[in-house]
Amino acid sequence: MTKTAYVEIHLPALRRNYALAKTLAGTARVWAVLKSDAYGHGLTRVALALPDADGFALIQPDDAVTLRHAGIGAPILLLEGALEEGDVDTAVQHRLELVLRSEHQLQWLLKKAQPVTAWVKVNTGMNRFGFNPERALAVVRQLQATPFCRVAGLMTHFACADQLGTPLDEPWRRFMQVVDATGLPFTAANSAALLRETCTHGAVARVGGLLYNNNPFYPDTRLWPAAAEPVMRFAARIVHVGMLQAGESIGYGAAFTARHDMRIGIVGAGYGDGYPRAAPSGTPVQVNGQRAALLGRVAMNVLAIDLSALPEVQIGDEVTLWGAPGLSCDEIAWRCGTISEELQCALTSRVPIRQIVADATVSAIPDEQTAPAQCLAHL
Ligand SMILES: *Cc1c(COP(=O)(O)O)cnc(C)c1O
Asked: What's the pLDDT band for 281 if we cut at 50, 70, 90?
């Protein structure tokens, strides 16, 4: 039986968003960030859909090996470097580039004495990982004096790039201290920095959110490129249509009470699928290209919407929950007090994924394992 809730991943839109990132990055290379299963879009699916990508970046070494086995030859950066000592061997074996962000990782590199490629991370205010500028400079000098290690460049990750009111001057000054002293190439920009500060583009921009149509500044749209397109569409079928009389409430906790008679639709998706329970009444959905409002509490498998203004909508009709033109995931996330990434990562494995491999063509491929070949065949 078909599931009432499903996700579509629109690969042509993903490719166009990547091309857009390339244009914005100018001469910088763009490494697509694929951590957390490509922000819930599917690790190998996304990587194989970007055959011309300059490179990829992710966190789990196993994921990088998965990509190598899937035939990905482009550079792959491990954003947190080696998570255990053996990852240094894995990196050498599979040509993975390592971020070097902690003293214990430096000890592993020196002990292993293997031909690794490393990006030395400078702490510019995130204060989780990375070396302070003076120490970073010393680490670079030390590695450059070893015959086996290649220092590819310097890396940093801004704490506040997505907060337009917070200037990047101080983190930038700290980073440039090391860049200027070493003359090394650098990678500093995530999506937010790519969009707001050209000087941060460097040799490589590490772009995640923009590829998936997530505006890091939402609801501020001033720096957001109008050409970016939704990639993930979360949709579900209407499984029941009914009436709510004035004064009647709907759903758990009677959280919404009708002030006038209403036509309502029950949609076959809930928090058990990955639609956020935090979404309040009034959160928009889209039916037949028109907006309708969520009513009452989201349940595990269903949610209710107002169909009063949409008399033609029937059982079996499709409702877009996010990811259509005019209904971004950003808007839904913002209504819930979170960001698109959290919603996308929280989609559950119970939701089947169809990938759209060419514009206006849908292939039903529920299983990630079978996806890549299909996807390439349609490129
Ligand atoms: C996730 C991540 C990125 C990508 O960030 P976006 O804001 O999604 O573009 C870049 N660099 C590092 C170190 C990351 O962890």
From this structure: very high
With a 6 Å cutoff on the Cβ, whether 21 touches ligand 1 is no
Whether the per-residue pLDDT at 43 is higher than 50: the answer is yes
Does the structure show a pLDDT above 80 at 213? yes
What is the C-alpha to C-alpha distance for residues 178 and 187, in angstroms, rounded to an integer?
A: 13
DSSP-derived secondary structure letter, 324: B
**Among candidate residues 350, 338, 233, the one with its CA nearest the CA of residue 300:** 350
Q: Residue 265 maps to which CATH number? A: 2.40.37.10
> Distance between alpha carbon 175 and the CA centroid of its chain, in Å?
25
What ligand 1 atom has the least distance to the C-alpha of 210? 9
Question: How does pLDDT run across 330-357, given as a tens digit for each residue?
Answer: 999 999 999 999 999 999 999 999 999 9
296, pLDDT greater than 80: yes
Domain count, the chain: 2
- Is 35 among the catalytic positions? yes
300 is in an annotated binding site: yes
- Closest residue to atom 4 of ligand 1, CA basis: 208
Instruction: Report how far ligand 1's centroid is from the alpha carbon of 42 (Å).
Output: 17
Q: Which atom of ligand 1 is nearest to the CA of 206?
A: 10
Same domain? For 70 and 164 the reply is yes
- Domain containing residue 16: CATH number: 3.20.20.10
